[in-house]
Design goal:
Helix content: 25-40%
Largest sheet: 6 strands, mixed
Distance between the termini: 58 Å
Low-confidence stretches: none
CATH class of the largest domain: Alpha Beta
Structural class: alpha/beta
Radius of gyration: 24 Å
Oligomer: single chain
Number of strands: 15
């Protein structure tokens, strides 16, 4: 069985990890049919079924599970060997795959990406923006960006973007003229509010303050969405009170379309971190990005 194509083994690993031909194909930038054909070739060579396929799911068989367990470290070693060769190039090459929150994709990465890619012209960047927390390595990403409370402890984390950010509460002048100015977070229970719902279906409580004096409320929602632009538009249109990252609201606060309220209850927190697994052979594109971020931090200290 030494003539098994490495590409077909890699295709099997991708589909088995994702439990989906379509999701694996999207992350690999190939067609689902090409992955399906690779699986058919591999199963024919081995004369054993590796994946159970139905219209609703893809799951590894017992043979597939055993093969996946053996393949993942081996493919990792191959990737590490290729990255070592890559490090000998004058300029690192390859694709850097990042999983980031929407706030980072919208407000932080645009300030960084251009400089990084111009400094590393042989690197391409793939960014997936989602606010849920996932196992970035199992999902096929090189690294993730999250806030401190969401970073796994066994990961290496380095700062990226502003070191302090703020969560503010705001509404339009028209709304406040109509409904009155809230003086305390509990007053929001009598107001119309615009709340964010994550893709998981969770809508978090609004939290104000810290420690024993903190307050958590579930204000009544006139609009609930998982689209920040829609939420901001609803606030500007006078439909209710919004609470979110200050960066999201900055243009509208500057223009006067929105004004902050409950200023004594603004929440300040540390900015995000790039996090990645500790391993001896870091992919060359990720190493280049880490070195770039560290150089940027040193230049700001000077």
């Amino acid at each position: 069985m030494t003539d098994l194509p490495l590409a077909d083994l890699d295709a099997f690993t991708a589909v088995a990890r994702e439990r989906s031909f379509r999701a694996a194909a999207k992350k690999r930038g190939v067609s689902a049919s090409s992955l399906s054909e690779a699986l058919r070739r591999l199963e024919a060579k081995l004369d054993v079924r590796l994946l159970n396929r139905t219209t609703r799911s893809v799951t590894p068989t017992e043979a597939g599970t055993r093969l996946l367990e053996r393949l993942q470290p081996a493919l990792g070693e191959i990737a590490g060997a290729l990255d070592q060769v890559n490090e000998l190039r004058d300029s690192p090459a390859g694709t850097l795959k990042l999983n980031v929150p929407s706030i980072v994709a919208r407000e932080i990465l645009p300030l960084i990406v251009g400089r990084f890619l111009r400094a590393n012209p042989a690197i391409s960047l793939e960014v997936t923006a989602e606010d849920g927390f996932i196992d970035v390595l199992a999902a096929g990403f090189d690294a993730g960006i999250r806030y401190e409370e969401r970073v796994e402890r066994d990961m290496i984390a380095i700062p990226i973007g502003p070191r302090l950010q703020r969560y503010v509460t705001a509404a339009s002048p028209e709304y406040l003229a109509r409904r009155g100015m809230p003086q305390h977070p509990h007053d929001l229970l009598e107001h119309d509010c615009i709340r964010h719902r994550f893709a998981s279906g969770v809508s978090l409580l609004w939290e104000f303050g810290e420690g024993e004096g903190s307050i958590s409320i579930a204000p009544p929602a006139v609009v609930t969405a998982n689209a920040v632009d829609l939420e901001i538009a609803a606030a500007v249109d006078g439909l209710g009170v919004i609470r979110t990252f200050e960066e999201f609201l900055a243009p509208h606060l500057k223009s006067g379309a929105l004004v902050t309220i409950l200023d004594p209850w603004v929440t300040t927190f540390p900015g995000p971190f790039l996090y990645y697994a500790s391993r001896r052979h870091m992919p060359a594109p990720l190493r280049a990005f880490v070195d770039f971020l560290k150089a940027e931090q040193r230049s700001k200290v000077r």
